[in-house]
Specification:
Blueprint (H helix, E strand, L loop, with lengths): L21 H17 L5 H8 L3 H13 L3 E2 L9 E2 L11
Length: about 90
């Protein structure tokens, strides 16, 4: 007799790997490591300095990561970025 997929006795199916670009992955890794080392999330200016890109590009990346469900933040509040992925789902920082 086959068990139905909704059977609570079955182990949960592994979640698929998040679909992010290599650049998005590096931003996620930076957010993870910055938060771990500094005990607070990075500000967009911290990412601007690290990645050596424009402030507008960093802001657009943050908005994109939020829209894709990789992070959440409180608009207008500094250092409010929170990762919604586990460490295993984030690449290493290059």
């Amino acid at each position: 007799m086959k068990q139905q997929p909704s059977d609570p006795a079955l182990p949960p199916e592994p979640s698929p790997r998040p679909a992010y670009t290599p650049t998005q992955g590096q931003y996620l890794a930076f957010i993870y490591y910055y938060t771990k080392l500094n005990r607070q999330p990075p500000a967009e200016s911290d990412m601007h300095l690290y990645f050596r890109t424009s402030s507008a590009a960093v802001h657009q990346m943050v908005v994109t990561l939020e829209r894709k469900g990789f992070i959440e933040r409180v608009p207008g509040q500094s250092r409010s970025i929170r990762l919604l992925l586990t460490r295993q789902e984030i690449p290493d920082l290059a």
